[in-house]
Q: What sequence folds into this?
């Protein structure tokens, strides 16, 4: 039986004879059901007209994204580490070509995901590489494809070794997580942030939202918490969720300035 995939958010569901009646991820107020109603596809169908592109960003960091764009359109990031490669965030499409390329890069030892919109086909990726999936426990109710490979963690931080730390900032979701990579940006540190800390069109800045498609802002309190969670970590560069959403330099200061600007706007002082 197929494992149906929501065409709007890219979430893969367990095997079933017919598509699910609903996608709770899309029916949540942070996401949406498309104008044509709930639509479904499968991995086999995706493989017929989509492919993955792999691009190097910097030493030991590559991006993996699907063309043409599918669902939300995020790309994943693979950190190559002596202690085992980490896949940050996930995409839906997985095929033999992608498996072969990622295997040549050292495979995947663990998968960590920022929030439920990027859970996508995490179980398929996990099974292909025999890799555990690390999700924050505060978002466990949003897992649509339960599996023994999923490891829930709680608290504010979790180390994945080799200077790689997961940080629960909250905000977009209660379990919203970013990844700090101390070895990134040639040792100056990099923040892999999904869209929890989202690099905007003016890449000198970032922003924060409860819902991006429905344009629901976060509270000032939530943004202050994000800022406080990131304060102990140094980072020069920020990689958010899409190919070109990168703040190449001065990343930590960009977050501080952006948070101050956001708080002024949301509190009516801008």
A:
């Amino acid at each position: 039986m197929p494992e149906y995939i929501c065409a709007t958010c890219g979430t893969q569901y367990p095997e079933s004879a017919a598509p699910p009646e609903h996608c709770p991820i899309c029916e949540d107020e942070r996401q949406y059901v498309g104008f044509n109603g709930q639509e479904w596809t499968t991995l086999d169908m995706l493989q017929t007209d989509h492919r993955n592109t792999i691009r190097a960003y910097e030493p030991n960091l590559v991006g993996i994204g699907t063309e043409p764009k599918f669902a939300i359109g995020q790309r994943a990031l693979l950190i190559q580490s002596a202690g085992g490669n980490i896949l940050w965030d996930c995409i839906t499409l997985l095929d033999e070509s992608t498996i072969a390329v990622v295997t040549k890069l050292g495979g995947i030892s663990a998968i960590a995901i920022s929030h439920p919109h990027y859970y996508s086909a995490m179980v398929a990726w996990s099974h292909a590489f025999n890799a555990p999936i690390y999700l924050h426990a505060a978002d466990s109710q949003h897992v649509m494809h339960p599996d023994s490979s999923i490891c829930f963690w709680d608290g504010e931080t979790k180390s994945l070794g080799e200077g790689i730390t997961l940080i629960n900032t909250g905000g977009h979701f209660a379990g919203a997580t970013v990844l700090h990579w101390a070895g990134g940006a040639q040792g100056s540190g990099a923040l892999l942030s999904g869209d929890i800390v989202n690099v905007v069109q003016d890449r000198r800045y970032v922003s924060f939202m409860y819902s991006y498609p429905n344009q629901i802002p976060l509270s000032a309190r939530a943004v202050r918490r994000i800022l406080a969670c990131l304060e102990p970590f140094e980072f020069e560069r920020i990689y958010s969720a899409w190919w070109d959403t990168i703040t190449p330099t001065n990343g930590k200061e960009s977050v501080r300035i952006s948070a101050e600007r956001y708080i002024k706007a949301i509190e009516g002082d801008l």
In short: Residues 22 and 38 are 7 Å apart (CA to CA). The mean pLDDT is 97. Residues 3-266 form a domain with the Metallo-beta-lactamase; Chain A fold (CATH 3.60.15.10).
